[in-house]
Amino acid sequence: MGQSASATKDGPKSEAAGKQMRDASANVFVETEAVRNITERSLTYLSSGYPVHFRGCAGSGKTALALRLAEMLERPTLFITGDANFTSANLIGRETGSRTKQTVDRYIHRVAKYEKETSIAWNDEALTQACTHGYTLVYDEFTRSRAEANNALLPVLEERVLILPASSNQEPFIRVHPEFRAIFTSNSSDYVGVQSAQDALLDRMITIDMDGIDRDTEIVIVSGRTGMKPDIVAAIVDVVRDFRESGAYEQMPTMRASIMIAQIAMSQKITVSASDPVFIDLCLDVLASKGTPGADSEQRFILNEALLDLIAAHCPN
Known about the structure:
Blueprint: E1 2-8, E2 11-14, H1 33-47, E3 52-55, H2 62-72, E4 77-81, H3 88-92, E5 93-105, E6 113-124, H4 126-133, E7 136-140, H5 153-158, E8 161-163, E9 173-175, E10 181-186, H6 199-202, E11 206-209, H7 215-226, H8 230-246, H9 255-267, H10 277-287, H11 297-314
Parallel strand pairs: 3-10, 3-11, 4-7, 7-10
Antiparallel strand pairs: 1-2, 1-4, 5-6, 8-9
């Protein structure tokens, strides 16, 4: 489990790094008409009290959009990331030891009265904090956690009640704060380490698939992240998109591959051209690794030739 939250005067605020669709220099959210449409729909659902779930391949901008929505809700945000070792305690809380209080009464000079009281020390985790105070919970890659770890979410999302363990020394349950909102993200089920999501849990949220980012949106995002001009970025994006559509890979090349190529080309002043051997090597190093691991020399040669054809087709000489 990973949780990143910093305290502010209003409560915790998320500090997610590395996954945001933001301009690298100005830290501005990159928004196209397609992204705006998803954002507006999602805000409608969240405002109505329903959790939103963004599902799609890695690099499709799920986390960035989730954080943008949390920001727009203008409530303190808690950010957690799913993990195979998660238990319900990672969501609700756990015992952290015990506290002992001892009182010595010497009201009568020759008589000492001792009173000792021991209680369990308890630490609330993200879900309990969010439900109690009305924070926004961003649960990134929640399907990396086992189904039983996420069971605590079921009554929260349906009955708006959080069931607490008896060891918490609190009431058996708490009513969920009316301002509580939840945003989930998950990778496709064929990714390594991803668990099958419970139907009961998916039935309580509105799922929006993020796999179909259009070409124009991808160009704007990559350009915003790297500072490269859109007309030059378009060539890189087209190479990656055509490779993606070919299916000739083991690991899908995502928008991150386009960002990586563009960012390195910008920082090292590499010309985006099929006639520049340094640029060709850059593309092959980033994209050829997506092929089948352990492929023989002939398979690698075929893949490299296919990539060279794509570079020649989209990148001007």
